[in-house]
Amino acid sequence: TNERPEWSPDGLRVLFRTDNSGKRSEVWWRPVDLSATATPLLSGDRLDVFEAVLSPDAQFIAYQVDTSGADVYYRALRGDTTAHPVANSKFLETMARISPDGKWIAFVTDESGMGQVVVQPFPGPGARTQVSTQGGSEPIWSRDNGQLFYRGSGKLMSATVSATPSFTVVKRDTVLDDEFVFAVNPHANYDVMPDGRHFVFLKSDRDGDLIVVSNFRRVLRDRITASVAK
Predict the structure, then answer these.
(1) Do the beta carbons of residue 194 and residue 202 sit within 8 Å?
(2) Coil vs helix vs strand at 74
(3) Can you give the pTM of this predicted structure?
(4) Which of 105, 139, 152, 161 is placed for a possible disulfide with 122 were both Cys, Cβ 3.0 to 4.6 Å?
């Protein structure tokens, strides 16, 4: 299984979650021109990593690990690679995304009883701000750092944000009705184009059919009887 792809900031590599080692869930990466084979980026005998993103300067990597629930950590790519927690409470914390200016990190937590998108300083410390109000998931930053998109209540939402003097949500707007495919596992299943005006989504190529059978027991009995008679 290879899934949950993310770009490196320079666009030259793709990070992805894999179970290729056969032992743990790890994050590997590979050049997009396929000039080299995929190699481990985050792995270890005591570590199950399910998704990861690089900071804009490619100095840090933020990632979600499987603990008693799910937690978000970060560490440097070089030098001292000691892991530091972003959020490691008893609640589920997933889908971390670092802002384009590298100063904030958005993720999803169910601390309130339902999944909500929150933002806090990166790498921290600092206060946490809740962005979504009626549930939210799959946060994605706009390239200009001024908006945070997320999915919630059947809508794609846009939160206009400001970091001066502190991080605040200026307003929330509905972008569109969300009829698109959600990821099977916690991970953003869409993206914002570089121009900030378009999105890339996955849309199912077929709709499920609703079939109603009247007098189901009689129909079933008749079919069984006919089958036995043959």
Answers:
(1) no
(2) strand
(3) 0.84
(4) 105
